[in-house]
User: What shape does this take?
Amino acid sequence: MTLLRKLFPALPVWTSAEHPLMRYQMGAPVPLSRRSRYLRALGVIIAVAALVGLGVLSATSLGTRDAGSYSVETINNILYTPLVLLQILLSVAALLVTVGTISREQQLQHWDNLRATPAGAELLLRTRWFSVFRRLQLMLTLVMIGRFVLLACMLYDLTSFQGRYIDLLINGVVPEVSVLVAVLLVALLMTAAVLLPIISVGFDAAVGLLVATTVQQRTYSAIIQLLLIFLRIGIIGGFSLLVTAYLSGGTDISEPVAWLGVFGQAAVGDWGLTQLYLGRAGEIWTTVPYSVLIGLLLVGFCFVQAWGADVLLNLAIRRAQRKG
Assistant: This one.
């Protein structure tokens, strides 16, 4: 997060780790011995190895077939399941970190003092929202590393067939696009793939804060949390099944519904992971009309989702300021 502040020096002062409310949100740092640091690093390595192992089992159907026909396809097939799993955990964790914010402060008997302080409730919620990125930075970092590996594979793929791979991919797509436009669309797709995890985590955290300021009863809050978690998992599974069935000819749906399925999977399902393998993306482009434009629309979706997160956060702040 220090690097983030160096890259964006205009970030509000309350995002700094030295800000009193940010220190309050993160708690006092616990000094770790060298042995504890080694054990933590070992735990991360074991967790990553387990996720990669899960990806291998998934890609090979429990070892009954090859993970892919060539290296790039193999890497994509192995990384897809672990990254989707990490993204689900990220989404759920962002919600859980924020959804109990108000009730926690009330239990600690800090809420009345915060509300009596000018902008106290607002700063509490804003620092709680930003603290999500600090708390989940390990998972978010792993997700981003995995995506950068897939992006590197994507760039390598573009050099195939003496650099003519993109020509082959756009052959027969609707609408027809030139090679230059196709390259631009792929660049936008890659940009969206980098932005979507960060913006989506921020959006989920804002949803959690809105729930926190709307529902105070622990029972109702727990029910809403479970519903949101199941909804998240259902969205990912539903869009994935719909797109897979359509591409394999297993379902007869209209082209507009198929396009919405592809866009929904990329925007809120797997956050664009499916499209990061050009072989699969090319199949989608030629099968689903206008799906070649998904990259452009995903960048637009990123801006809309970021705006939506800001709206939800401000709504949660207004609700918190009115609560007694």
About this structure: Residues 179-214 form the longest helix (36 residues). The chain has 15 helices and no strands. The chain has a mean pLDDT of 87. Residues 40 and 313 are 33 Å apart (CA to CA).
